[in-house]
Amino acid sequence: MSVKPSRTLVLIRHAKAESQLGAESDHVRPLALKGRSQASQLGRDLAAQSLIPQVVLCSSALRTRQTWELVSGTLLQAVSGSHSGPQVLVTDDLYSASSKDLIGLVQEHGGDASIVFVVGHEPTISMAADSLAGAGSESAAAAQVRVGVPTGTACILRVGQEWSGLSRSSAVLEKVFRPAI
């Protein structure tokens, strides 16, 4: 009898960004001060749960890249010095991705990683979490992703197969949380 792999997918909506002003491109909106605090606390919270990624897929938007930088700064600081940093792929493909696109990127880039983070945008993060959530998912978490998740929120999904097999209802949505700041 073969043992099913245990994998964890953490879908993160970027932290609070500055409001868009004038003709400024949405793609270059930076994090607000509150967003910086959210992202740093989220890193500490993920470290407390021993959620240290081997692969990170991050949208190319400034606010998602800044979110990952702050999350990783506190997350990786909290683990022993023996941990090498994750493989990080910053991609335009996540900026306007559908939930199907997001899942495809995880299938393509997850490799042998046991923990994969995706740092992206709404409504894609909550739609992907809702699509992947299958039997055994936590009911309050499932209800939250159906209506959308606020900035600085992480959705934790357990996956019992290779990343290439990730599909609708194939994961267990264990929790949705955001840092208390």
CATH domain fold name: Rossmann fold
Percent range for β-strand residues = 15-25%
Instruction: Determine the N-to-C terminus distance.
Output: 46 Å
> Residue-averaged pLDDT, rounded?
92
The CATH class is Alpha Beta
- Considering DSSP H and I runs of 4 or more, what fraction of the residues is helical? 25-40%
CATH architecture: 3-Layer(aba) Sandwich
Strand numbers in spatial order across the main sheet: 3-2-4-1-5-6
Structural class: alpha/beta
Number of domains: 1
Which blocks of ≥5 consecutive residues have pLDDT under 50? Answer: none
Rough outline: globular
Helix tally?
Answer: 5
Gyration radius (Cα, Å) is 15 Å
InterPro entries: His_Pase_superF_clade-1, His_PPase_superfam
Protein name: Phosphohistidine phosphatase
Report what the structure shows:
It comes from Rarobacter faecitabidus. This protein is an alpha/beta fold and 181 residues long. It contains 5 helices and 6 strands; from the N terminus they run βαβαβαβααββ. A 6-stranded mixed beta sheet has the order 3-2-4-1-5-6, sandwiched between helices. Helix 2 links the parallel strand 2 and strand 3. The mean pLDDT is 92.
